[in-house]
């Protein structure tokens, strides 16, 4: 099977007036169709840099990134990006916020608008479509951000700590909803998170990065019976705690105990 995301020997150096810092050092990664992969690792190990390179927002200093076999040389509609902050515009209604990607790409037609409505409904937001972001809870706002990302139908979703600003219960509910929705739609996802339990519960594969410079230390395949369960139930499966502790130990030796 061909990977949908492929990173070949990616090295990235940030250069400022005073210094140069090596953020990623010769990193290789393949992500396969429909896979849900999490990246965990100590603060500063290059997770966000990696996502920015896949998204085409940043060119690596060395190495090449491919998406669907094509070399990445800028952002494309095939890759959606969801962040910790929802960046909803306070002056636009929920529907107008959700459909902004369509507007920007000139696809504000009946078919796409109907899809936006259907996605809002799937996310339990039908009643909120004419409200404004400030009238919504954090969890609802992140659901709007997901709808906004999905309206343009990207095959690949990059998720940079989308749950980390939420309270615990909302976070668990949203993990379930988002992971379930992405699997159902057969999307490929790369999630950056500091929460090891979240990584183990939502992913097919958890990749631990080490820092200074950022490199892959180890990749953990999540056993079939855990990954086929919804995230909330995955945490109750036999072997989940062992997997969590194995990832934790790897993180500890990566120099961080988050
Ligand atoms: N614009 C920049 N200029 C200089 N150095 C940077 C820049 N952005 C990131 N870095 C450095 O590159 C390294 C990797 O940063 P990056 O944000 O990718 O790590 P991260 O793993 O996502 O961190 P965190 O978990 O804290 O979000 C860090 O040492 C960081 O200080």
Automatic annotation (TrEMBL):
Pfam families registered for this protein in UniProt: ABC_tran
Keyword annotations of the record: ATP-binding, Nucleotide-binding, Transport
SUPFAM superfamilies from the UniProt entry: P-loop containing nucleoside triphosphate hydrolases
SMART domains the record matches: AAA (SM00382)
InterPro entries: AAA+_ATPase, ABC_transporter-like_ATP-bd, ABC_transporter-like_CS, ABC_transporter_ATP-bind, P-loop_NTPase
A Gene Ontology molecular function term of the record: ATP binding
Keyword set includes Isomerase: no
Lipid biosynthesis recorded as keyword: no
Domain ABC transporter positions: 5-236
Span of the signal peptide: none
Entry protein name: ABC transporter ATP-binding protein
Organism: Paenibacillus cookii
């Amino acid at each position: 099977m061909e990977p949908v995301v492929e990173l070949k020997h990616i090295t990235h150096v940030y250069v400022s007036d005073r210094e140069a810092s090596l953020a990623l050092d010769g990193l290789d990664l393949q992500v396969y169709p429909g896979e849900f992969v999490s990246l965990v690792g100590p603060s500063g190990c290059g997770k966000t840099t990696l996502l920015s390179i896949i998204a085409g927002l940043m060119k690596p200093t060395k190495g090449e990134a491919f998406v669907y076999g094509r070399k990445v040389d800028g952002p494309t509609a095939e890759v959606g990006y969801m962040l910790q902050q929802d960046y909803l515009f306070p002056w636009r209604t929920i529907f107008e916020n959700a459909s902004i990607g369509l507007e920007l790409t000139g696809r504000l037609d009946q078919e796409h608008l109907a899809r936006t409505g259907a996605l809002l409904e799937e996310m339990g937001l039908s009643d909120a479509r004419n409200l404004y972001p400030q009238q919504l809870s954090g969890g609802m706002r992140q659901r709007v951000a997901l709808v906004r990302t999905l309206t343009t139908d990207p095959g690949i979703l990059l998720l940079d700590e989308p749950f980390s600003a939420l309270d615990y219960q909302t976070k668990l509910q949203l993990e379930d909803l988002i992971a379930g929705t992405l699997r159902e739609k057969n999307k490929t996802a790369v999630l950056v998170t500091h929460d090891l339990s979240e990584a183990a519960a939502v992913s097919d594969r958890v990749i631990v990065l080490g820092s200074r410079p950022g490199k892959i230390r180890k990749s953990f395949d999540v056993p079939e019976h855990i990954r086929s369960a919804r995230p909330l139930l995955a945490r109750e499966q036999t072997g989940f705690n062992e997997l969590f502790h194995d990832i934790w130990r790897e993180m500890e030796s990566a120099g961080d105990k988050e």
